[in-house]
């Protein structure tokens, strides 16, 4: 797959998450088929915005309802799509090797291993939760790194609700490790979902749901202002969520979380939402400088240190935040800003021009609390280190707008608005929760 001499330079983007797909879309509009060939690589055929995985897990949306097909999107927006997982990089030959693709139906080979040439490579590989080597986590815990994992959790939660409704199970017991945004949002949405199951499906489990949230921190949402954390705590406690703080998990078994100090949290459904780490494949890639957590070290321009013509962005990149030795947080907000920055940098790079360093601009934090609204905060104009809170209904409206803005980045204002209206119409005719 090496291009013949004289053809357009090839920019390969590995990873179609929030940042990778936005970058491919922007470069496709600006450069695609004219000044450069843009190729997006991903192991999945479609994209789902990762901050919505907790809604998929709760059954409040179907993964297919909000997925963007890479082939169709690339055809419209000027980039090509290559299906497959990344196996290796050869920085000298400037190639990436892709793994074979197997049929989900019978395991037969659809595509074999392939080698793809690049002139510029962008790694947008995302991240995974960190199990910290704790026994039983990988074996017994659900995680929310992919739509497939979210659907598996949704199925387990629905099965438990059906069993409670049929009298075969006393209660639906859920243990969530990690009181960051993912864990807090999931706890709130599961409470919302079980009530919707009762109203629309007759499953009488709403009064028989036990959710326990466990974290080593002294408060939930430890990265936000204490006032914002306090508001979220009050909402969860009102929903009946049990919060255990200053507690760490020693091991996980099939029916419980076992905490250090001897405490036990009985639960059939266990979710691990604690810690962020780079994917295992990152440690096997040649020429990259890594942090202990398998994140790729980049400079002020998001260029990989010691690897010419390779950039990294999003959760997989350890980008400096210019505040002491801190790194920018692994959030969709950062990925969005980095996609905008790299689109400008790569366009100017082709024209022989330079651009200033990437500077992350915090825009605030919003965490959904189900029907109870949201908890949020935004930096003040005068002091970037101080914030003002925005909780309740207003924060919920702002939270919903985040996904709408992601759609705008992918589809433009007209189609994003049409999709928004279609969502509203669909919710008037279908149950608000999946019952299958």
From TrEMBL:
Record-level GO BP terms: aerobic electron transport chain
Keyword Oxidoreductase appears in the UniProt entry: yes
Cofactor(s) in the UniProt record: FAD
Keyword Flavoprotein among record annotations: yes
Listed EC numbers: 1.6.99.3
Gene Ontology molecular function, alphabetical: NAD(P)H dehydrogenase (quinone) activity
Record-stated family: Belongs to the NADH dehydrogenase family.
Name listed for the protein in its UniProt record: NADH dehydrogenase
